[in-house]
């Protein structure tokens, strides 16, 4: 047995408080919620990617003895709920009325006494479809003869959604015109899926007597969901309670409102009973928020000796059948325009065109910090393409172009202000940890030996993240500003309860937020209960995604704890009968300046604050505070990653030999949790680089609709991670912390792909798209790489 | 949650009882062994048997033993037990190598040898391994027992010669000189051999194979636990430097009956050189008709059929020589 650890009073390594229930199987997930009289819902889905609905006959399903209700788009039309707004101000069909627009789209909803009957009844619904040609290839969605998918939208005569650009196009073109070297490369970031182990689901319970609707739902944004339900369904907001219980992974997949949730709510209203809807694995992979699907063309202008001068990027963004991406309103391409990455360039421009296709809607999910994964991948791939063309060492090329510490705060050419960073230090540390020189020597020796053994490749990636959305004046979702509240109450005995607006899908909020309070108030983290994920019990805020919890809500927590500390000073001054200005703070205690022995602990103060002690005028009793934190800027974590692979040229198999990851996320609240986040993200990166993919055949059939088809990496594909850290605090965050949840997902795919491309360099391979499956690597060696977003034929 | 359609459930207590239950329910009944192929198909409602006859209690079919000159593997032997069997490793390392890359431990703990063969998935690994070593399937039905070579067992994708009402009960693998039959005899021969040669011999994890016979399995998968993109198994018996006999099994590459008779014929009597093994791979590939899917395009799979055949043969030859 290990010894019982003493949790730190504040920041530091400690076991996660929530794990006690998780490792015992005592968590409460949505599917664990069982209410008296509860019914079960199931969704009938379209087998076609694009088809007109001729008729829907539900009579046989209605007649099933255990079926309580069958809901179709027609039912919903009567309630004005057949369509709902998406997070990108588009509309999405809740249940299809006119056409189906992607395979797996929701067509009808059955409510029955049990899961089996609900599923059986789906087969009794007779839908007549008239199939239409499907738009599958994003690059051809705007062809004049492409079938129009969104003919439901007035004035929509093609599949175009938006054009959006950032940077100075003319200045960029001018640099390109005078550049010594220009390299260009088409780069695809294929469609992948967040694939949380717990699929999406909800239990809706409408109480006709009180008029209160309670929804247990594994959402990442309970408050935003509540407001949207109020706006869409016309229910009064105070009569809606959204509870996000324990959640088995989100990765952005659980930000949107899905038709199944709305159907469960309608089902409960119609039947007067609680209704549970839990999607299965295939439904999750086929119909819920996917990620990426960015078809990019990158161009770099540089000098002959490898100084990067300008970047130009054109993107076709596949948003599926409904534009359902979750991102701040002003940024239809998310934060893609951070694509200049970590480098000092004169000018940059990106132009993004969003298109509809006959694929599942969604868009930014999957740990991508609003498209920064795509941006970081693009720039890091382009740097290696430039290194290839110039025959330069990719580490040297990066070192030469990285921003210098003295350039911070750095105004980027596309409008960001990077808060802090020391990039060369992080890259140097990674190179040193990897033993870069020795690795290159080993590679050279192997190449020189002419053996037909595995090909060795070394890949580097340096990323800059932009997380913590965000400043209210720039960032909102559906008009809701991205500020977050926090409430802290210290009980008379000195124990505390913290209520936060964000919730956890596994990030460990119950531990880290208690540690922030502990750090600020000097009470043990075990004495702080963290309440989250229940709109009736927590202050408003936009939720956990985009690595925003620590930058926004973590800041709110520090601020609210400081407010409590200030109140405690007032109470202590009354207790000690000294002027508040004469009190000094040490962790957990106010004492009289110059007389350290004269003081009161926070616990003593808490009791006094609730007692009959006379307080100065204007000082309220009790010990509590609330705050709303509006971040002044995003935080900009960064890191340097190095991956070493061995590739079998006879089979195309890639083995990741080593992975070195140096992360700088500012001050680390709980280093163990940070490392856990990095481990998970690195595994994600290997998955995306080597195996994860949702492709579609020419009819629009989804080819990644089960875990036999959509491959997630296992421990067997992952090396033993070698982690390093540098600490460059955020200057504007109250505790100097930056988000880290997505850093490794953002940074790692490029390192893996760069390593494989480096291994294939002797074959003249400059680029091949993800995922680098054995087949694809072998085809790249043959000079015939695959188009990975389409079915292999 | 995926849930199957309605079905009846019966639990057999003996082979005879299982046959009686199958007779009772007729052609709409299905046997369930480990359930790792059948249950997912039922949940997806691709399979809708009216009744399941559960044979998991049939301990009498769970064994790996030597029966005279043959290795006998009961149909209810779990993948994990085949993998753990020293007897199997001693005679045919091909099975350990194949089992190590079949699915994952969870599936291997429950999935069975019989279920694998009867599922007849075109990417199934054991079919290729059994085809390589020239095994035979023992099938029991109402009219008694019959034996069918594994190379004639599969009649098409997901189809076998096992008729409704019948049960696969055993797979027998002939044990030939070269792979020693029992540990004591093997050890004695090893000692003699080492004394005579100054000690070249293979010590596999548990057993030992001297010059004469060797076998190996090679598989490419996209990820651990995935079905094969392509796989090849080889068994070789040497006569000095000449290949006396060879067996090649292939899966997932559209090889008829999971094997490569043309390449085998080419090998018999040829010297065991790299060039010959490469040519055998080429011939094997030539007779494959793989189909493209998300695991890879047809040209790649065809390439792998050759590459993996050659690699498996090379390792089998090394084993036969006592070098690997
Ligand atoms: C995630 C996963 C990964 C896998 N990966 C691989 C892989 O890489 N390679 C590979 O080869 N396999 C793989 N498999 C398949 C696995 O090996 C088979 O599912 C399993 O071994 C089949 O055996 P079972 O006992 O589970 O059969 P069941 O599912 O119980 O039965 C399969 C079929 O055989 C019939 N049947 C079973 N036993 C008998 C019998 N004695 N007589 C007559 N009919 C019988 C059943 O009626 C049914 O039709 C994988 C499976 C899973 C779930």
Automatic annotation (TrEMBL), chain A:
Protein name per the record: Carbon-monoxide dehydrogenase large subunit
SUPFAM superfamilies recorded: CO dehydrogenase molybdoprotein N-domain-like, Molybdenum cofactor-binding domain
Residue stretches making up the Aldehyde oxidase/xanthine dehydrogenase a/b hammerhead domain: 24-133
Coiled-coil ranges from the UniProt annotation: none
Record-linked InterPro entries: Ald_Oxase/Xan_DH_a/b, Ald_Oxase/Xan_DH_a/b_sf, Ald_Oxase/xanthine_DH-like, AldOxase/xan_DH_MoCoBD1, AldOxase/xan_DH_MoCoBD2, AldOxase/xan_DH_Mopterin-bd_sf, CO_Mo_DH_lsu
Organism: Phytohabitans suffuscus
Keywords recorded for this protein, A-Z: Molybdenum, Oxidoreductase
Cofactor: Mo-molybdopterin cytosine dinucleotide
GO molecular function: anaerobic carbon-monoxide dehydrogenase activity; copper ion binding; iron ion binding; molybdenum ion binding
NCBIfam families: CO_dehy_Mo_lg
TrEMBL record, chain B:
SMART domains: CO_deh_flav_C
UniProt cross-references to Gene3D superfamilies, sorted A to Z: 3.30.465.10, CO dehydrogenase flavoprotein, C-terminal domain, Uridine Diphospho-n-acetylenolpyruvylglucosamine Reductase, domain 2
Keyword Hydrolase applies: no
UniProt-listed InterPro entries: CO_DH_flav_C, CO_DH_flav_C_dom_sf, Diverse_Substr_Oxidored, FAD-bd_PCMH, FAD-bd_PCMH-like_sf, FAD-bd_PCMH_sub1, FAD-bd_PCMH_sub2, Mopterin_DH_FAD-bd
Keywords, comma-separated and alphabetical: FAD, Flavoprotein, Oxidoreductase
Domain FAD-binding PCMH-type: 2-178
Gene Ontology molecular function: FAD binding; oxidoreductase activity
Residues of the signal peptide: none
PANTHER family: XANTHINE DEHYDROGENASE SUBUNIT C-RELATED
Protein name: Carbon monoxide dehydrogenase medium subunit
Organism: Phytohabitans suffuscus
């Amino acid at each position: 047995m290990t010894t019982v650890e003493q949790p730190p009073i504040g920041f530091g390594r400690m076991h996660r408080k929530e794990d006690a229930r998780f490792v015992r199987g005592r968590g409460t997930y949505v599917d664990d919620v069982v209410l008296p009289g509860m019914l079960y819902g199931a969704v009938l889905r379209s087998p076609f990617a694009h088809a007109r609905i001729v008729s829907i006959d539900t009579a046989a399903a209605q007649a099933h003895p255990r079926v309580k209700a069958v809901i179709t788009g027609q039912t919903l039309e009567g309630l004005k709920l057949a369509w709902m707004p998406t997070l990108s101000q588009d509309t999405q069909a809740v249940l299809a009325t006119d056409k189906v627009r992607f395979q797996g789209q929701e067509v009808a909803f059955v409510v029955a006494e049990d899961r089996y009957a609900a599923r059986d009844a789906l087969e009794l619904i007779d839908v007549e479809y008239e199939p239409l040609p499907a738009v599958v290839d994003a690059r051809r969605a705007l062809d004049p003869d492409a079938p129009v998918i969104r003919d439901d939208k007035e004035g929509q005569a093609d599949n175009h959604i938006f054009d959006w650009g950032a940077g100075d196009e003319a200045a960029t073109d001018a640099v390109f015109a005078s550049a010594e070297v220009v390299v260009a490369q088409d780069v695809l970031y294929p469609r992948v899926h967040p694939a949380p182990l717990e699929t999406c689901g909800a239990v809706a319970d409408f109480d006709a007597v009180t008029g209160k609707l309670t929804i247990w739902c594994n959402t990442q944004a309970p408050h935003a969901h509540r407001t949207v339900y109020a706006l869409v369904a016309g229910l009064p907001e105070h009569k809606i309670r959204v509870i996000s219980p324990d959640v088995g992974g989100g990765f952005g997949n659980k930000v949107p409102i899905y038709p199944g949730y709305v159907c469960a709510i309608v089902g409960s209203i119609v039947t007067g009973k609680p209704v549970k809807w839990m999607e299965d694995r295939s439904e999750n992979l086929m119909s819920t928020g996917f990620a990426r699907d960015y078809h990019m063309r990158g161009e770099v202008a540089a000098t002959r000796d490898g100084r990067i001068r300008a970047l130009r990027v054109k993107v076709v963004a596949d948003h599926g059948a409904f534009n359902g991406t979750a991102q701040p309103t002003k940024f239809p391409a998310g934060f893609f325009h951070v694509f200049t990455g970590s480098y000092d360039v004169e000018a940059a421009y990106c132009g993004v065109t969003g298109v509809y296709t006959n694929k599942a809607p969604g868009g930014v999910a999957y740990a991508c910090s609003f498209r920064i994964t795509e941006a970081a991948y693009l720039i890091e791939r382009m740097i290696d393409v430039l290194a290839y063309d110039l025959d330069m060492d990719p580490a040297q090329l990066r070192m030469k172009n990285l921003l210098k510490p003295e350039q911070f705060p750095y105004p980027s050419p596309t409008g960001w202000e990077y808060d802090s960073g020391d990039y060369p230090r992080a890259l140097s540390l990674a190179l040193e940890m990897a033993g870069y020189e020795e690795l290159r020597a080993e590679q050279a020796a192997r190449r020189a030996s002419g053996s037909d053994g595995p090909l060795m490749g070394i890949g580097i990636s340096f990323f800059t993240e932009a997380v913590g959305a965000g400043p209210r004046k720039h960032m909102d979702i559906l008009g809701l500003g991205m500020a977050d509240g926090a409430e802290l109450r210290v009980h008379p005995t000195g124990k505390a309860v913290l209520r936060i607006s964000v919730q956890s899908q596994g990030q460990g909020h119950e531990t880290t937020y208690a540690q922030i309070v502990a750090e600020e108030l000097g009470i043990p983290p075990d004495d702080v209960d963290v309440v989250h994920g229940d709109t009736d019990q927590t202050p408003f805020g936009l939720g956990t995604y985009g690595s925003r919890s620590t930058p926004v809500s973590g800041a709110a927590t520090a601020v609210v704890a400081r407010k409590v500390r200030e109140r405690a000073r007032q109470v202590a001054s009354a207790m000690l009968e000294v002027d508040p200005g004469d009190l000094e703070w040490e962790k957990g205690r106010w004492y009289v300046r110059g007389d350290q022995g004269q003081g009161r602990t926070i616990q003593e103060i808490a009791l006094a604050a609730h007692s009959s002690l006379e307080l100065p005028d204007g000082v309220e009793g009790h010990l509590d505070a609330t705050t709303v934190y509006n971040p002044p800027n995003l935080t900009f974590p960064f890191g340097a990653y190095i991956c070493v692979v061995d590739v079998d040229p006879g089979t195309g198999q890639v083995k990741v030999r080593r992975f070195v990851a140096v992360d700088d996320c500012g001050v680390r609240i709980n280093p163990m949790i940070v490392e856990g986040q990095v481990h998970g993200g690195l595994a994600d990166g290997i998955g995306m680089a080597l195996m994860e993919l949702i492709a579609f055949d020419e009819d629009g059939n989804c080819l990644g609709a089960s875990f036999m088809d959509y491959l997630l990496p296992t421990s067997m594909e992952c090396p033993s991670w070698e982690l390093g850290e540098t600490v460059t605090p955020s200057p504007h965050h109250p505790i100097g912390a930056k988000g880290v949840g997505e850093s490794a997902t953002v940074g790692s795919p490029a390192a893996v792909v760069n390593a494989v491309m480096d291994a294939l360099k002797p074959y003249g391979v400059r680029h091949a798209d993800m995922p680098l499956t054995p087949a694809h690597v072998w085809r790249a060696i043959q000079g015939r790489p695959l188009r990975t977003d389409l079915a292999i034929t | 949650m995926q849930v199957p359609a309605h079905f009846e459930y019966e639990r057999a207590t003996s082979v005879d009882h299982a046959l009686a239950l199958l007779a009772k329910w007729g052609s709409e009944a299905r046997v369930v062994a480990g359930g790792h192929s059948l249950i997912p198909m039922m949940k997806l409602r691709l399979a809708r048997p009216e009744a399941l006859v559960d044979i998991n209690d049939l301990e009498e079919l769970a064994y790996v033993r030597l029966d005279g000159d043959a290795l006998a593997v009961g149909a209810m032997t779990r993948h994990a037990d085949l993998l753990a069997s020293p007897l199997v490793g001693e005679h045919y390392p091909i099975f350990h190598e194949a089992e190590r890359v079949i699915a994952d431990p969870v599936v291997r703990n429950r999935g069975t040898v019989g279920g694998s063969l009867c599922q007849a998935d075109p990417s199934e690994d054991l079919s290729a391994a059994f085809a390589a070593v020239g095994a035979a399937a023992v099938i029991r039905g109402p009219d008694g027992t019959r034996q069918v070579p594994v190379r004639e067992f599969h009649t098409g994708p997901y189809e076998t010669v096992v008729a409704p009402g019948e049960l696969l009960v055993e797979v027998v693998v002939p044990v030939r000189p070269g792979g020693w039959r029992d540990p004591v005899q093997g050890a004695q021969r090893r000692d003699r051999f080492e004394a005579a040669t100054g000690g070249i011999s293979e010590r596999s994890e548990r057993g030992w194979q001297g010059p004469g016979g060797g076998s190996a399995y090679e598989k490419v998968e996209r990820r651990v636990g995935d079905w094969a993109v392509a796989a090849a198994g080889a068994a070789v018996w040497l006569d000095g430097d000449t290949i006396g006999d060879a067996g090649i099994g292939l899966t997932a590459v559209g090889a008829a009956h999971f094997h490569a008779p043309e390449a085998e014929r080419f090998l018999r009597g040829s010297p065991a050189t790299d060039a010959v093994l490469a040519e055998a791979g080429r011939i094997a590939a030539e007779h494959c008709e793989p189909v493209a899917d998300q695991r890879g395009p047809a040209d790649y799979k065809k390439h792998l059929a050759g590459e993996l055949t050659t690699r498996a043969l090379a390792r089998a030859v090394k084993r036969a020589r006592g070098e690997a």
